[in-house]
What we know:
There is one protein chain. By secondary structure, the protein is mainly alpha-helical. The protein has twelve helices and two strands. A two-stranded antiparallel sheet has the order 1-2. Helix 9 crosses helix 12. The longest helix is centred in the middle third of the chain and has 13 residues. The N and C termini lie close together (9 Å).
Amino acid sequence: MAGMILAPAILFSICSADDQGFDYKKQPLGLMPIIWPPDNPYSAQKAYLGRLLYFDTRLSADGTVSCGTCHKPNLAFTDGVAVSTGIRGQKGTRNSPTVLNRAYSLAQFWDGRAMTLEQQVLGPMANPLEMGSTHTAVVKTLKSVAGYRVLFTRVFGSDDITVDRVAKAIATFERTIQSGNAPYDRYKAGNPNAMTPQQIHGMDVFINKSKCDKCHEGINFTSNSYANLGIGMDKPKPDLGRYIVTKDPKDWGAFKTPTLREIEHTAPYMHDGSLKTLEEVVDFYDKGGRPNKNLDERMKKLNLTAVEKKDLVEFLKALSGEGWQKVQAPQIFPQ
């Protein structure tokens, strides 16, 4: 079947984007409707094409790495290691952030160097440490696959495969990967039993004592801003984060605030993956971060009790929800 040009039509009939649990008209409880880019509106067929491309290792230089290699569905769209491994076993320098709820994110990457999800998608393909290819080579590979030419025609109206269209398809798929309807969302919606007493106490610690919501705010528990926490700043040559992009001294050592949705499933933590557990993360914040010349002024010692720390971790687990668990890699790909 997969070797036939008709395979894409068969694939659409048995494994459409809607089969992956995404409802275009209704987001999970706690989330807002997605604002789709005017130049990249949603369609189920585009999302499906994007899912194929997301998991297709042929987009890498040696055919071994895909987007899904570092953002695995079974690991809440992370890879469970401190830093990812690209082609030829090369190690990256930063932790792979989750793709979950990326539709609600602003600038992409830990340092915010990509302004849109479409721009972000293009980065790993041409990164020598990741997929190690070039945009020209990716397009050439896809053009050589008759099945993809059929799919691009269905989605975009012609079989003209461009890197821009590749990015739009993958970004559309990624915007369908959502997490909501967590115990926290049900509690906020009026169900007093949706969270345990420990989680309710932990929420109070999160908001009122620790002031975590100063950075982790809103429906996606992130301000989409940047902060220097001191992580890695004690190394001889620290990663300078946002400063590399802006050259603004206030951004020295600052990294983007990640979402806390599904945080219990996205270990290890921080931009370098240096903290292995939520308990370690809470202890790090309790100590006020790591001193350095640009430590964020919001980083203060918290002096949490053992019970407060434990309940804070329990609250973070109440941010694990639904909407993404049905997403799987395709069983067959266009030929």
